[in-house]
């Protein structure tokens, strides 16, 4: 008789949609419970609270394999590795996918600024490592992000632009919401705050 212990499957985690997350975040914003920097980022992207857009986004994110709608495959690959390096867990939160969908409904100016930011990061990667940013390994990504975040300039840097998009996408996901302290069975009088607070300035 086998003495091996039976494998007990993990309980299925309740998944919530981006539409439901938007309602929770709206409550947190209205009550002033979210970190100020995060609040300003969320409110600056009006489509985060557009029910029709979120319904379509939920449908797109539910697909087994995601094909970028706005970005090219190379741009999307670069965004995926950059967002994961900026906030670990962004891949599971489908941050790159959600950013791609947000870009489809944003202004032409915002779209161009985002594409320019990606191109600048890719150019920096070519200068430092002679390869596209989408092919970089973790140590190289860290070096690239450290170098780009240290640059000073009068205008917002490409790194800062991509960071703000990543934060927005991550914290409007279930993973990000849970990191802020939310759970389905508990109502918090306030959000404890995220671990990336320094990125919200």
Structure, explained:
The longest helix is centred in the middle third of the chain and has 22 residues, at 108-129. This protein has 201 residues and is mainly alpha-helical. It has one domain. Helix 4 (73-86) crosses helix 5 and helix 4 (73-86) crosses helix 7. The chain has helices spanning 18-30, 36-43, 51-61, 73-86, 95-105, 108-129, 138-149, 158-171, 174-179. It contains 9 helices and no strands. The model is unreliable at 5-14 and 188-201 (pLDDT under 50).
Quick overview:
The chain is an all-alpha fold and 201 residues long. The chain has nine helices and no strands.
Task: Please give the structural blueprint.
Elements: H1 18-30, H2 36-43, H3 51-61, H4 73-86, H5 95-105, H6 108-129, H7 138-149, H8 158-171, H9 174-179
Number of strands: 0
What spatial form do the alpha-carbon principal axes imply? globular
Poorly predicted runs:
5-14, 188-201
Tally of helical runs: 9
């Amino acid at each position: 008789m086998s003495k091996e212990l039976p494998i007990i499957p993990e309980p299925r985690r309740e998944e919530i949609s981006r539409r439901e997350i938007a309602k929770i975040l709206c409550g947190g914003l209205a009550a002033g419970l979210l970190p100020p920097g995060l609040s300003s980022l969320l409110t600056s992207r009006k489509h985060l609270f557009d029910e029709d857009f979120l319904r379509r986004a939920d449908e797109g994110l539910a697909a087994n394999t995601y094909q970028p709608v706005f970005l090219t495959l190379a741009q999307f690959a670069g965004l995926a590795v950059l967002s994961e390096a900026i906030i670990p867990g962004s891949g599971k939160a489908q941050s790159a996918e959600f950013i791609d969908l947000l870009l489809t409904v944003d202004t032409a100016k915002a779209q161009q600024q985002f594409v320019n930011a990606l191109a600048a990061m890719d150019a920096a990667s070519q200068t430092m490592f002679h390869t596209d940013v989408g092919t970089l390994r973790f140590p190289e990504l860290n070096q690239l992000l450290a170098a780009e975040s240290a640059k000073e300039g009068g205008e917002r840097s490409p790194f800062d632009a991509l960071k703000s998009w990543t934060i927005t996408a991550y914290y409007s996901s279930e993973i990000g919401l849970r990191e802020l302290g939310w759970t389905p069975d508990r109502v918090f009088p306030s959000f404890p705050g995220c671990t990336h607070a320094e990125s919200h300035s």
